[in-house]
Amino acid sequence: VVPSQGSVGASGDLAPLSHLALVLVGEGKAYYEGQRYTGAEALKLAGLSPVVLKAKEGLALVNGTQAMGALGVVTLNEAERIGVVADMAASLTMEALQGIICAFDEDLLAVRPHPEIQAVGSRMRHFLKGSKRVTKQGELRMQDAYSLRCIPQVHAASWQSFQHAEKVVHVEVNATTDNPVVLERGDVLSGGHFHGQPIAFAMDFLKFGVCEWANISERRTERMVNPHLNNGLPPFLAVNPGIECGLMIAQYTAASIVSENKVLAHPSCVDSIPTSGNQEDHVSMGTTSARQVRQITHNAAKVIAIECICASQA
Length: 314
Fold this sequence. Notes:
Blueprint: H1 14-24, E1 29-32, E2 35-38, H2 39-45, H3 57-62, H4 66-96, H5 106-110, H6 115-128, H7 146-149, H8 151-173, E3 181-182, E4 188-189, H9 197-225, H10 248-264, H11 286-313
Antiparallel strand pairs: 1-2, 3-4
Helix pairs in contact: 4-6, 4-8, 4-9, 4-11, 6-8, 8-9, 9-10, 9-11, 10-11
């Protein structure tokens, strides 16, 4: 049982990691098969014995960045799936609105050689291959709105934030982040590896990327339900317009969620409150960043699901 609040992201994730370490030594609280027990009871039920800590092991368990790193790992796993589904949802919307596929032309995208743009464009072309609903430039209109035409560029920027965060988290979870550090040469040196600033920056940057997958998705949803923008589809995609409201409230829900995400996306890493009698006078708030980006990711999943629903109906 680990409280989600209480870490300032420097001196490691002391508060949450202490609750984790307590269970290992037979104290604290833990869940076993859905029921809450004391740490000792939970270990016994699981057929485990309390750990007897040796020199420095207690410090290593509580004085690192493991909490924010773990949150980063699970969030990246979720965000990666969200990013792929965002491309799939956008492809379905392209069909619903008879979008212009020329904007995803391989040679066109190659003149702005971000590899992430090429990757999104390739996926879009794959998803739309053989579609009889998408159009070419000049058939219905010369250009689509940005939420359709700029899918490769916007989604690619989100993938760039994802890849940066993934690189940082990979280093972090394979690193020593407690203090002091016992070096192989025998020295015991105090440093600052417990400071979560690298992962705090990465999690806040990931916030922006996941937010934008949701933001542009909501704009595509709005185009499908808006009778002034949806290329002749019924108002709010209602089967009986005027008698029923169709999917109007689905777009309300998406709008509410993306607005909430914008508040959560405020970077936590730029905040710092001194602790420990001002000895720890600069902290990262990285665990807050990691908690917030996970909530943003869960919110984005709902927004993109709404786009899928509306595009299927359209």
